[in-house]
Amino acid sequence: MLLTTAPDTLPETAGAEILNLLLPHHRTTDQSRASAEAFPHQLRRISDFVREGAPIAFTLPGFPCKSPNPAKTLGHLPDMGERLSLAFLDTLCTQIERIHPPGARVVICSDGHVFGDLIRVPDDHIDAYADELRALIAESGSDRLSVFDLRDVLGDLPHGAKRAQVHDRYAPTLDALRAEVRADARALALYRGITRFLVEDTADFRGTRSALQRECRRRAYGVIQRSRAWGALIADHHPRAVRLSIHPQPVGAPKFGIRLLDAPDVWTTPWHSAALREPDGTWTLMPRARAQRFGRLVHRDGRPSHFERSRADGHRSSATVRR
Predict the structure, then answer these.
(1) How far apart are CA 33 and CA 24, in angstroms?
(2) 3-class DSSP assignment, residue 133
(3) DSSP secondary-structure letter at 37?
(4) Which of 206, 237, 200, 244 is nearest to 219 (CA)?
(5) What is the pLDDT of residues 184-208, one digit of tens each?
(6) Which residue in 25, 161, 189, 198 is deepest, having the highest Cβ count within 10 Å?
(7) Strands 274-277 and 256-257
(8) Do 161 and 186 contact (CB within 8 A), yes or no?
């Protein structure tokens, strides 16, 4: 049960209450659960907002675009996975309001254009994805969520020019990044995870498997460089915000990893998967190719939306859900 913080309660106490709302959704590879006090970076920033009586600002880099691998996703536009994730974030903000009446705001920092050329997704697909995210937020009537992307920073410059500007200003050098991956186990795990995604998402490579892996290892360094650059740009534009991450983060890290929906592993996101609804109403994320073995495809507004597991013995069909 959530308790409303009294006016004379210390901001740090309210900050711990608010952080306790996030802890059940912590995305991490650490095995043990930690208390709010183990997250000093987040506690300090949340407490500052509480002390000022201002809405708590969160930034969440992610929601870049759909994976181009048709075995993973239902298409290039947001679907039920994104709808559920946006609803989760909005609900989290609503829960925070019960503790801190000014509430909270989440800025979704859509980063598809930052590395679209490296992940081989067309820029018009990335634009369409981000535009649909904004439309879904507007449709929900929420004033707690917003989308921020390179168009908000560099306007109508060509996408390649935007990427070059961000990379040149903010990205770490390749030598520095390679040294970090060699020396740091978490950096190595991130590099390997991104390489795996790139291999899985490359559908039209004409060379050998080993050649594809070499190319994806090279591109993985570029993705990490651009991702770091995007993080630095966000810090410039939202310097006081509490930084969330869709990647697993250790306890006490400056970024708080957050799990948007249940999934078989800590790396799965709505843009690399499809949503499957169980008969009891719960949802999970998994690759499309797997989800379609378990459930029937459901359409919404004329587009594939998600899969629904039947109570019957494996019957598969197509259904339509209306708003």
Answers:
(1) 9
(2) helix
(3) G
(4) 200
(5) 998 998 899 899 989 988 877 777 8
(6) 198
(7) unpaired
(8) no
Opening angle at CA 133, ends 130 and 136, nearest 5 = 155
Determine the 3-state secondary structure of 195 from DSSP. Answer: helix
Edge-to-edge order in the sheet of strand 295-300: 283-286, 274-277, 303-309, 295-300, 318-321
Instruction: Give Dmax over CA atoms of the chain in angstroms.
Output: 66
Query: What six digits make up the tokens of 52?
Result: 């000022």
* H helix or E strand, kind and range, residue 214: helix 209-237
Supply the DSSP symbol for 9. S
In this structure, are residues 270 and 258 in contact, taking their beta carbons and an 8 Å threshold? Answer: no
Asked whether 113 and 63 are in contact (CB, 8 A), the reply is: no
d(Cα 215, Cα 19) in Å, to the nearest integer?
Answer: 41
Q: At 123, which amino acid appears? A: D
**Which two three-digit tokens encode residue 205?**
């490579």
Cα separation, 110 vs 147, whole angstroms: 7
State the amino acid at position 297 in one-letter form: L
pTM exceeding 0.85: yes
Q: Beta-carbon neighbour count of residue 135 at 10 Å?
A: 12
Confirm if 251 and 33 have CB atoms less than 8 A apart: no
Task: Give every CB contact of residue 220 below 8 A, 6+ residues apart in sequence.
Answer: 191, 194, 195, 198
Looking at the DSSP bridge assignments, the partners of residue 107 are 59, 146
Q: Take residue 83 and report the two structure tokens written for it.
A: 């709808």
Tell me the Cα Rg of the chain.
20
Does the structure show a pLDDT above 90 at 262? no
pLDDT in tens, 75-100: 999 999 999 999 999 999 999 999 99
Give the pLDDT band of residue 312 (cuts 50, 70, 90): low
Task: Annotate 53-109 with three-state secondary structure.
Answer: CCCEEEEEEECCCCCCCCCCCCCCCCCHHHHHHHHHHHHHHHHHHHHCCCCEEEEEE
Among 2, 32, 6, CA closest to 18:
2
The two structure tokens encoding residue 18: 């608010």
Residue 119 carries which DSSP code?
A: H
